[in-house]
Amino acid sequence: MLASQLYKGTERQQPRYYDKKSGLDKQEYFKKLDESFTAYVGNLSIQTSEDSIMEFFSRAGHVKNLYMGQTLEGKPAGFCFIEYMNNQDARYAVQYLNQTKLEDRVIRVDLDIGYNPERRFGRGQQGIQIRDELRKTQDSGRLSLNQIQGSKQGIGYNNRGGHYNRNNNHRFYQNHNNYKNRGKSDNRGRYEDRNQNNKRKYRDYSSDQNARKQALRESSQDSN
Predict the structure, then answer these.
(1) Residues 84/46, Cβ–Cβ less than 8 Å
(2) Which of 34, 92, 194, 210 matches a 20 to 30 Å C-alpha distance to 28?
(3) Helices H, strands E: what count in the chain?
(4) How far apart, in Å, are the Cα atoms of 141 and each of 62, 174, 207?
(5) Where in the sequence does UniProt note compositional bias of the Basic and acidic residues kind (predicted)?
(6) Fold adopted by 15-119
(7) Cα separations (Å) of 224 from 155, 176, 218, 219, 221?
(8) pTM of the full structure
(9) Residue 84: other Cβ atoms inside 10 A
(10) What would the pLDDT profile of 104-142 be if each residue is shown by its tens digit?
């Protein structure tokens, strides 16, 4: 007897993922999953367009709907749901497109029980995905919590929600109003304060000058 025959049927199968937040028991969940027309796509680049996704997943069959995942701010969150016309096409997508590259990024494709509007957001903070929330390394194709919140712990990000361009050492900011915040340790904030003080002094000086001119005119009229 061949060794392969001895071990046939003894391989441990990968346990199927069960989403406890689906509101279904395991039997209902897996039944719905097996009959689903929908595929879940993960690890997308946030720069990948809907047109690129549609073209790529049309290889498996006719795409009925594409639902893009997003953050609470409405930015792409790097995942989506592809709804096909039938279960077989959804299975083809999983079989042939899982672990392939879309725009130089390896994507994950799995069967999904189906899209609903409540699932359009990631489950991490601010609507990003949990894996991005926990990630410690920089990934230019994904959002991070540091980009959303401007965390001081962000790699390559400052504490005001901006980021550094390492090619020219230029600083960009997501929220330019932060320059005007008082009490911030930012040079441009101090310059803003200084300019405001100078403008205020000039207005006071101009008011004094106008008052003096008015007084001179009135005194000259009285003398006449």
Answers:
(1) no
(2) 92
(3) 7, 6
(4) 27, 17, 56
(5) 183-196, 215-224
(6) Alpha-Beta Plaits (3.30.70)
(7) 76, 57, 10, 9, 5
(8) 0.55
(9) 23
(10) 889 999 999 999 888 887 555 545 545 555 455 565 555
